[in-house]
């Protein structure tokens, strides 16, 4: 850890912290990105040097990586201090800052952008890599999803298989990418969006599905037997020996129970007893504003972030069936400029309830809802949306920058 | 109208449905039902036979690998080519558009297409990603078009097709023209989806399918699609300044 850093790396770390602190003080953000950038300019190997000697887990995938990283951090904190990029800065600059800020942390739980997995495998020498799921996301600026899975597979193969992989057995793209590794712990983490894996990523033939099972009729790629799963009944995770670990999560939805299962599987590889870790996951109430509950004028809003078709479908699965729903859509650079994907989301489940739409691209949502026969009201912003619904619970679903705009309205709620 | 139930085939969603392509099927069904026309949407996977008896065929966009597989299966099946010969409306988007030509480029090489449209596609110097707009061919009577494009190919039109539009923003086929049209077959790089952003194009296809003139279709309240079009054209204007 930092006791062993070279003078250059120490200097780089000091500059990084100063830059991050300045950025925070001037209200430019949490400083993770600029701090890391400064540090890496002074010492290009800073990330590697800061990671050295620590027990690192990388967590990547299209959806759920911030929440799973938070759960994993909570679980690992049962046995020691954990460095983590909890601000969602999930590229090497953010990882460098997270490690620099926690010089004494023996463990590191790092959320990793899908496109930086290879770089982090090299730099952070992780003990464990958790791979959650892959589905279409911001196609106008990111890679198409099968190409990304192929890149992961190649990267994992090239990494020399030092790490143990914790991977989702229910996602064929993940299974294909991870199966090149000798040590894989499989988690039945589910797959709410199957349209990107109708055909075999390995050979292009059709995948047969029967319930949760899937297999390729041509090359034999199939669903591995999971060691970890979410219990079919009740809120619990079932471990490799068949033991149940009860969950009492504050975060909603099946997908968060699956994220919890992944976190427990990761933590147990670090020697954490899942029975000790599980109650710690229940303490997580919100994650960088996701699932946060805020109140205004008698309206109790629950904030859900959903960035892509899989995320929106998961949100609709989480929300209570009765309260009004506010949908907010932007298409700024980090969201992707292309809004076509909203046609991959089925909105018909919202029919019959009060739906209010807002965001930069509210008109796109209006056209979309009209096609699905869902009545809606279009308003200018979240304030107007709140005014448009009666006092009581309200579910809010927004994509990335739309979500940040709403968080800003509520004092950047965490 | 001649048809009581409109059968719309959406081809190969398992291979070619990358950019909200299902939206075109949803928009057509919505606009037909709003006029009292029953719709039977049929999603045909690439391991199923394509029905000969449908009234309209849609095919979407996708990655190189699935595009090559789709072209191969469509050539073997033959039903789409027969549908084109029979004058059935076909709407093809992006990768689906390219494979209606004589050849297209994928996985680093040229592939044989279906030869339904007189055009061929190759690889462009850069990926065309962003808003696209144009003035549709006057004979189509649908005015300006708007969509979102994301493709690495360039398409060269032959004598036997007309461009769908003259490009006013974006790239389309080659920076000058966008899409192609011959008979009742339309190919385009516009997703977005194209028919959500161009209701007149949707109505043209519906009119062809039911054997009438678009002007004969009862008008719909297009307040929201028209507002969306206005916003997208305005955004392009603002970006150009």
UniProtKB/TrEMBL annotation, chain A:
The active site is at 338. One of its GO terms (molecular function) is acid-amino acid ligase activity. It catalyses: beta-D-GlcNAc-(1->4)-Mur2Ac(oyl-L-Ala-gamma-D-O-P-Glu-L-Lys-D-Ala-D-Ala)-di-trans,octa-cis-undecaprenyl diphosphate + NH4(+) = beta-D-GlcNAc-(1->4)-Mur2Ac(oyl-L-Ala-D-isoglutaminyl-L-Lys-D-Ala-D-Ala)-di-trans,octa-cis-undecaprenyl diphosphate + phosphate + H(+); beta-D-GlcNAc-(1->4)-Mur2Ac(oyl-L-Ala-gamma-D-Glu-L-Lys-D-Ala-D-Ala)-di-trans,octa-cis-undecaprenyl diphosphate + L-glutamine + ATP + H2O = beta-D-GlcNAc-(1->4)-Mur2Ac(oyl-L-Ala-D-isoglutaminyl-L-Lys-D-Ala-D-Ala)-di-trans,octa-cis-undecaprenyl diphosphate + L-glutamate + ADP + phosphate + H(+); beta-D-GlcNAc-(1->4)-Mur2Ac(oyl-L-Ala-gamma-D-Glu-L-Lys-D-Ala-D-Ala)-di-trans,octa-cis-undecaprenyl diphosphate + ATP = beta-D-GlcNAc-(1->4)-Mur2Ac(oyl-L-Ala-gamma-D-O-P-Glu-L-Lys-D-Ala-D-Ala)-di-trans,octa-cis-undecaprenyl diphosphate + ADP. Residues 59-267 form the Mur ligase central domain. Pathway: Cell wall biogenesis; peptidoglycan biosynthesis. Residues 305-402 form the Lipid II isoglutaminyl synthase (glutamine-hydrolyzing) subunit MurT C-terminal domain. Zn(2+) binds at residues 200, 203, 216, 219. The keyword Nucleus does not apply. Its EC number is 6.3.5.13. Keywords: ATP-binding, Cell shape, Cell wall biogenesis/degradation, Ligase, Metal-binding, Nucleotide-binding, Peptidoglycan synthesis, Zinc. One of its GO terms (biological process) is regulation of cell shape. The keyword Metal-binding applies. SUPFAM superfamilies: MurD-like peptide ligases, catalytic domain. It is an enzyme of class 6 (ligase). The lipid II isoglutaminyl synthase complex catalyzes the formation of alpha-D-isoglutamine in the cell wall lipid II stem peptide. The MurT subunit catalyzes the ATP-dependent amidation of D-glutamate residue of lipid II, converting it to an isoglutamine residue. Belongs to the MurCDEF family. MurT subfamily. Forms a heterodimer with GatD. This is Lipid II isoglutaminyl synthase (glutamine-hydrolyzing) subunit MurT. The lineage of its organism: Bacteria, Bacillati, Actinomycetota, Actinomycetes, Glycomycetales.
UniProtKB/TrEMBL annotation, chain B:
The active site is at residues 94, 191. Forms a heterodimer with MurT. One of its GO terms (biological process) is cell wall organization. CDD domains: GATase1_CobQ (cd01750). It holds the Pfam family GATase_3. One of its GO terms (molecular function) is carbon-nitrogen ligase activity on lipid II. This is Lipid II isoglutaminyl synthase (glutamine-hydrolyzing) subunit GatD. It catalyses: beta-D-GlcNAc-(1->4)-Mur2Ac(oyl-L-Ala-gamma-D-Glu-L-Lys-D-Ala-D-Ala)-di-trans,octa-cis-undecaprenyl diphosphate + L-glutamine + ATP + H2O = beta-D-GlcNAc-(1->4)-Mur2Ac(oyl-L-Ala-D-isoglutaminyl-L-Lys-D-Ala-D-Ala)-di-trans,octa-cis-undecaprenyl diphosphate + L-glutamate + ADP + phosphate + H(+); L-glutamine + H2O = L-glutamate + NH4(+). The keyword Disulfide bond does not apply. The gene is gatD. Pathway: Cell wall biogenesis; peptidoglycan biosynthesis. Keywords: Cell shape, Cell wall biogenesis/degradation, Glutamine amidotransferase, Hydrolase, Ligase, Peptidoglycan synthesis. Its EC number is 6.3.5.13, 3.5.1.2. Residues 7-198 form the CobB/CobQ-like glutamine amidotransferase domain.
